[in-house]
Design brief:
Its EC number is 3.5.99.6. One of its GO terms (molecular function) is identical protein binding. Keywords: Carbohydrate metabolism, Hydrolase. It holds the Pfam family Glucosamine_iso. The structure is a single chain. By secondary structure, this protein is α/β, with parallel strands linked by helices. The protein has a single domain, classed as Rossmann fold. The protein is built from 7 helices and 10 strands. It has a 7-stranded parallel β-sheet, with helices on one face. The chain has a 3-stranded antiparallel β-sheet with strand order 4-8-7, with helices on one face. The termini are close together.
Length: about 250
């Protein structure tokens, strides 16, 4: 069964998770970190910042690959995931901004990048060229999606252009002033097959609204109906939960 730990507070969860990340990059200071956005990893990034500050770890030679990025937002938009990583990880640590990779819809029109599909395929190749991800941070959606791999996504999918499901648009509206019409309808996302190639994975889930998805991920069949269930097939994954998310376990 997929190993999981239930924490009494978000702070305790973040401390353990950040300590795990720090251990990976103390051992491999030029390794590759897979980043995630949203509310789940925020406290982890803050704790990582404190660990860097006291010299417990350095990220200055680490490369990062973000899971996904919206299509349709202008460069530098406050809700773009590049902006999120710059403000919530780069600004808090010694991570070099030049080492931060995010799927880039704005590459379309560059040599060899005629379409969004080309931009997605190029990102997948960039991850491989970097040697793959050593540690991948994940969250989970209330419908079981990871990154923007919505229910129904093939379990062997590669980085691709995806349409956001109505539930995801509703969930993410809180980042756009509660206005669902302002949430982009497409993204470029690492696929489930891409994510599964990470050497180690840590997934964070907090809140009762994640409880059914967490149950299905851990105890349900491996199925595109719950994309996160594919993690049952990964050899090195750990799940970090609060009491609400663990309610059905």
């Amino acid at each position: 069964m997929m190993p999981y730990t239930v924490y009494e507070s978000p702070e305790e969860l973040a401390r353990d998770f950040a300590a795990c990340v720090a251990a990976v990059f103390r051992d491999k200071p030029n390794g590759v970190l897979g980043t995630a956005t949203g509310s789940s990893p925020l406290e982890v990034y803050r704790v990582l910042g404190r660990l860097v500050e006291i010299g417990a770890v350095s990220l200055k030679n680490v490369r990062t690959f973000q899971l996904d990025e919206y299509v349709g937002l202008p460069v530098g938009h406050e809700q773009s995931y590049r902006t999120f990583i710059e403000e919530n990880l780069v600004a808090l640590t010694d991570l070099n901004s030049a080492n931060v990779a995010v799927p880039n819809p704005h590459l379309v029109g560059d040599p060899g990048i005629a379409t969004l599909d080309d931009a997605a395929a190029a990102y997948d190749l960039d991850i491989k060229a970097a040697g793959g991800v050593d540690f991948q941070i994940l969250g989970i959606g209330s419908d079981g999606h990871i990154a923007f791999n919505e229910p129904g996504t093939p379990l062997d999918s590669r980085t691709h252009v995806a349409d956001l499901a109505p539930q995801t648009i509703a969930d993410n509206a809180r980042f756009f002033g509660g206005d669902q019409s302002q949430v982009p309808k497409q993204c470029i996302t690492q696929g489930l097959g891409t994510i599964m190639e990470a050497r180690a994975i840590g997934l964070i889930a907090m809140g009762e609204n994640k409880a059914q998805a967490v149950y299905d991920m851990i105890h349900g069949p491996v199925s595109p109906d719950c994309p996160a269930s594919v993690l049952q097939n990964h050899p090195d994954v750990r799940v970090y939960l609060d009491a609400g998310a663990a309610r059905l376990l």
